[in-house]
Fold this protein.
Amino acid sequence: MKKLWAFFLSLLLAFSLAGCGGSSSVGDNSYSASTSTGTLGMFSLVSPTLGATLEEVPSFSWSASENAAYYTLEIASSETFITNNDAYVYYKHDFIAETSYTISASLSQKNVTYYWKVTAHSGSKTSVANNVFHFFLKSVDKEEVAFPLGEASDWSIHEAGSPLSLSIDNSNFFENNQESLCLKFELEDTKPIGWIVVTKTVELDTYGTDSLYLRFFYSGDDATAFIRLRDNDGEFWRHKIQLASNSKQICIMPFSEFTQDTQLVTVNNHVFDYFHIKYLEIVFEQTWGDGACLVSEIKTIKKSNYSSLFIKNLNFKNYDTSLWKWENSYNFGTDISADGSSYTLHYDQDANALNTVGMALAVR
């Protein structure tokens, strides 16, 4: 009788628990969001069409795959979709809900063939489109490509180098109606290694240009300055800046004059692939002292468009020396050589006795 009573008691307790609010059943614990569970349908790539020749990165579209929850788009400059080599471009975007997508990144290589494919997903199931298309992306030659300075926070300071302060100068220092990046460093902050590097990441197509242009000013103790660029396949190339202390300079650096920097950096083809620049660095070496630098109007150019800035043959006879003005009213005798290639100054100490400070010539 006791065994029968215990059986009825346990049965009653089971019914009571089943009716209590807030309890969880096995069905509740196994809940999962609803997903497409059917077989993924076949689908095809639509645009850009097979073998198209384009000058701009296109929008990509494909037909729908039945039961697909989302899609993955892949684009590569290698037919095998190489993902880990800087010599090739590889782009991937996942979780695309629609059947079209416009990429925001730049495909850095031009005048090459790109391959693209799309994969449909449903849970753990995947299905690749029944075709892989390719298109040819042409380069568009440019006259100039500007490197925007941005904000001071857009530039990074190499942590192993000496510290410095960065700011954006809005005083129109170079009289070009543009901002300048201002770099200042001090002797007491100089590390024993004596170098400073500031970097700005850029992703710019520079097809058609052949030189780097910038306005540059330096004031301070002796130093050596370089511009360093990272090219399309990840190599570093640099060009020295000939410093003229306390002088505003226009620097034009042909890419053909850049030399490869191989120390602790990637080396691929030993060719300056300057048609696509990945980032730019301003480098100071041998900086054991105070210094201030301003840089403005950084851009790539066609050197031939600036031929008026270069003097091929200097002939002083072509200039009216009577218009030359000497700072602080100095008086100099002049002597131009017969062929006009040299200009000699004759300093008269008695005539300039009152001028005991520096001298400068302003040529207009």
Q: What stands out?
A: The chain has a mean pLDDT of 83. The longest helix spans residues 2-18.
